[in-house]
Specification:
The chain has 414 residues and is mainly α. Helices cover 46% and strands 5% of the residues. The strands form 3 sheets. It has a two-stranded antiparallel sheet. Helix 5 packs across helix 6. The radius of gyration is 51 Å and the shape is elongated. It starts with a strand and ends with a helix.
Length: 414
């Protein structure tokens, strides 16, 4: 991203950052964009905080537009003290002349600080669409399409679970206070200060809200392949015990009502997460290859049994004559069965031009009882031994006039 300078008609210099075609940015450009996003988010939070500061003392009256009737919205102060004021008068101290339920302040700045805390918290909640959009626009360019989809889905589910936890904490708060403030009411009477009461409520809300995110975290670990359903199934009882211990320690009031509500809700959510991991593992098992579950030092299974090979079809036609049989090498039309090859004959040596024909000698008289004529050997005879070709008509094994071919496997082939 580069920066360009332009001069307006009024003489004012404006600097606009040009975006690179490939979407890359330098570190300075990233810091500049981060500063812009933070300033926008802080400006929105500041405006909504002012609205929350005013809303702390003044509720929004009821109004109606045609058939639509909107009831009165109580002030933030009334919403904050509602769980405490729902207790019976015998469980809380009342120091006002009109016997109105109010929180106790023991320092000059306690009222102002409580109002600022409630206004800031309300402003943060009311401005959440703006600062969430700014965060999303800052991180979106660095994410792929599937990463954007997963981030948006996980963020939406996480926000819903946190809000569900906040609502559950607010509903459990009166019952928890009722149990805690009646444990020693015969000896003491409660007079809660605004600061301690606010800290107690915020702690309970955060515990419930963050605890409701544990099932989502478990499902994400399963999607990442860290944990599986079989592992969680074997440790289900241990998980339930751990959840009850966590609920007993994490709830700020240490009352059994808050502990039981938090523990039972977490058990139900964890069971839903377990069923999600079971379905996901079952679907993933259908697409897992045989070697994906093996470690690095294990060999993958091989299929040693060869598959059956079909018999080859004959390329010859029984009715077609080969070359040796007088058929054509290429049938008419350029297609058809390939002719059979002609049989291989024994090689013969043709006489060269320099060689002159040798007269055939007359056969020598023989004393053998067999009568008959004896033909002269050819000029070249194929022999087996030191000499491959014998051009002479000399003796063979001391018997002149007889040159024979020794029998061998090679002769049989020929």
């Amino acid at each position: 991203m580069t920066q360009s300078t332009s001069v307006s008609k009024g003489g004012r210099v404006s600097r606009k950052a040009k975006k690179n075609p490939d979407g890359t940015m330098s570190i300075v450009d990233h810091l500049r964009e981060l500063r812009t996003r933070l300033l926008r988010a802080l400006a929105a939070i500041a405006v909504t905080t002012i609205i929350g500061f005013i809303w702390y003392e003044h509720g929004i009256p009821a109004w109606a537009i045609g058939p639509l009737h909107v009831p009165r919205l109580p002030s933030l102060g009334e919403i904050l003290k509602e769980p405490y004021c729902s207790l019976p008068p015998s469980a809380r101290a009342t120091f006002s002349a009109d016997n109105e339920c109010r929180l106790l302040a023991t320092s000059p700045f306690e009222m102002f600080m409580l109002r600022m805390k409630m206004g800031g918290l309300a402003g943060l909640v009311m401005a959440c669409p703006i600062w969430l959009i700014e965060i999303w626009r800052f991180i979106t360019p660095g994410l792929l399409k599937n990463e954007r989809r997963w981030t948006l889905s996980v963020g939406t589910i996480a926000g819903f679970l946190f809000v569900l936890g906040v609502v559950a904490a607010y509903l459990v708060l009166p019952m928890g206070l009722d149990v805690l403030l009646h444990l020693g009411d015969s000896t003491q009477i409660s007079a809660l200060t605004g600061e301690k009461y606010f800290n107690f409520v915020i702690a309970l809300i955060l515990v419930f809200g963050l605890s409701f995110e544990v099932p989502l975290f478990t499902a994400m670990l399963n999607l990442a392949g860290v944990v599986h359903y079989e592992q969680l199934k074997d440790k289900r009882r241990i998980m339930i015990v751990v959840i009850f211990i966590f609920a007993a320690i994490a709830t700020p009031g240490q009352d059994p009502i808050s502990m039981l509500v938090l523990a039972l809700t977490l058990v139900v959510l964890m069971e839903l997460a377990l069923q999600f991991t079971r379905i996901h593992d079952r679907r993933a098992a259908r697409h897992v290859s045989e070697w994906e579950g093996l470690s690095d030092d294990e060999a993958s299974p091989l299929k040693v049994a060869p598959s059956s090979i079909p018999a080859a079809e004959s390329i010859y036609d029984g009715d077609h004559k080969g070359i040796a049989g007088g058929g054509d090498a290429h049938p008419a039309g350029g297609s058809g069965p390939i002719p059979k090859p002609s049989p291989v004959t024994a090689p013969t040596r043709a006489p060269s031009a320099s060689e002159s024909p040798t007269p055939t000698p007359s056969p020598a008289p023989s004393d053998s009882p067999t009568s008959g004529s004896h033909h002269a050997p050819p000029a070249a005879v194929l022999r087996r031994g030191p000499r491959s070709w014998n051009d002479s008509t000399g003796d063979n094994d001391g018997k002149p006039g007889q040159d024979t071919i020794q029998s061998s496997s090679f002769d049989d082939v020929l």
